[in-house]
Write a structure and sequence with these properties.
- The protein folds into two domains: about 5-310, no CATH class; about 315-355.
- It is built from ten helices and nine strands.
- The protein has helices at about 20-25, 45-50, 70-80, 95-100, 120-125, 135-155, 180-200, 230, 295-305, 315-355; strands at about 5, 55, 60, 65, 115-120, 160-165, 205, 240-245, 250-255.
- Strand 3 (about 60) and strand 4 form a beta hairpin.
- Helix 3 crosses helix 7 (about 180-200).
- The mean pLDDT is about 80.
- One of its GO terms (biological process) is meristem maintenance.
- InterPro entries: AminoTfrase-like_pln_mobile, MAIN-like.
- It comes from Ficus carica (Common fig).
Length: about 350
Amino acid sequence: MITTSNRINYLTSWNPDARVLEKLNGTGFESLHKLAVSDFKDTSLVEAFVQFYNVDEGCFVFNGHKLILSLQDVRYITGSPVNGNAVTGVDGNARDLCHRHLGSELNSEEGFSKSMVKTGWPRENYEKLDDNANEEKIAQHTRAYVLFLIGYFIVPFSNGKFVPAMYLSLLENLEEIKDYAWGSALLSHLTCSIEKFRRERARCIHGSFYIFMVNWGPYRRRRRDLIPCSIVHQEQVFLCPTIVLCYIKAIYHCPDLVPMQFGVRAEHLKKTFPGLFTLHTEGRGGRAKDWRVYGIYRNHFQMWQNRGNQIIIDSQRMLEQQENQQKEERTAESVRHAYFSTSTCRSTENTLGGNGL
């Protein structure tokens, strides 16, 4: 049996103040505490599922059929934004980051390392918000709550006991939290862990397994008029081959491998991606690295920045074929209508004739 760092049931352990939720309105974080999921103790489904992951092809393969965990799945299932600024930036010291963004002085008794804090530490220290708290206090409690959600849901780390404090640097301006692709970070972190499990036969998979605990229908298309407005503007990235980042974690997102999964015909595909090649990543090491420009990550970051130019659909060709298909459907409908009209008339004539009328 494998173990996981999934701690989604802990999300309900923090009942956030209404003023905190107001600050997070529209970010995707404001509703995570409402996820009603039982404790995920039985990992047999995950264990069986990940055995089908092909590291070389970067996807799951079931009896010759390919399937990926996609940005579309993450957005629809979790509600987390998948298009926006990459979740990356400058690494930093936990004590300095907590002092700057949370107004807190960490001490050794509270359990932290140079770069991490205990995942439960934000709730223990920031769940209660005074009635007369000023804007700065509310902002600090909001950042602490988001760090808590990151550690338990977006990127559950290691055994689930710690969360990297570096994410606090992305939370300085609360108005900009919604601009980051947190769902993309979730996918990158989870996929990297699955790949490590398959390559190294690790005993633990780190990641948010919420997507395995819902009625997942990757080939089921949704009516566009039923898609929330907050999701519609993010649809373009669903069809973009790109590199998805979460600081040191980097994975390929390759919808062109599985066009059927996105309701796209193979003949509509546009060759935009150079294909899979060795994706180099590193261990954290050192301090104060800017993962947007450090080493090979500069190229990874630029590919994400240019994701809008990599959409897999040949839109002109697809539009032409859709128009032809619509003409064929209208012609077929006219033929059916004429046939049934003729058949009805003949049936009526036979009935009247048989009655001697």
